[in-house]
Here is the input.
Amino acid sequence: NDENGQSHFLLWGGTSDVADAAEVLRQSSLQRDGVDGSFAAVAESGNEAPFSPFFHQLTPLDDGRFFLSGGVVADGGSLSAPRDDEAWVLTYQDEPTPSLTIIRAPGFGQGRVFHTAASSNGQNVSIIGGFTSTACGAECDGYTLPTITDSSIRFFDLADGTWSAAADAGGFTERGGMGGHMMRSGSVFLVGGEPDLSAFTSATSRAIVEIYTPSNIPQP
Here is the structure.
């Protein structure tokens, strides 16, 4: 929110056939007379512009920065497998015109889709769950479906740009597509999800509710 009570929402991706992946929506609760807000294109610069994905995660950090992780692109009428090492730090500026500086964050490893990426302090990001590859058996009738091949929980530290992995996920039930909400305490509230979309009708993970406390949360 700015000093005029206007909220700015950064939008990224959602299509694969445009050069400009980012837009910003400016909207205020004070707007009247059917004016719902305005969209503006966002200029991009940096060491390498990321692709324009579906089903990625865009996590707010501090100082106008965002963390973009995972996602897939359309390929021949279906979704491709998540590409390896797709993680980026986006720094947004609204003046003089909306712009993003884009810096790759190498070290993510295997890409993911339908994962949870959350931060409690604007510095440390926890990447939880998600699908990491695509496979198709006889039961999927020719469609490509995501599967889990690596359920490790990954941490990113914005301060030094390093990655680490959780030594023990604390019993996390590997799955993708769950709802994830970062609470003020730094713990992540996880609801639902599926371990295997090819067995969707028989999967039971959607009934699972878990609270995960990342080990990378700074201690008082």
User: Anything to note?
Assistant: The chain has a mean pLDDT of 78. The two ends are 29 Å apart (CA to CA). The CA atoms of residues 15 and 52 lie 6 Å apart. The longest strand covers residues 6-12.
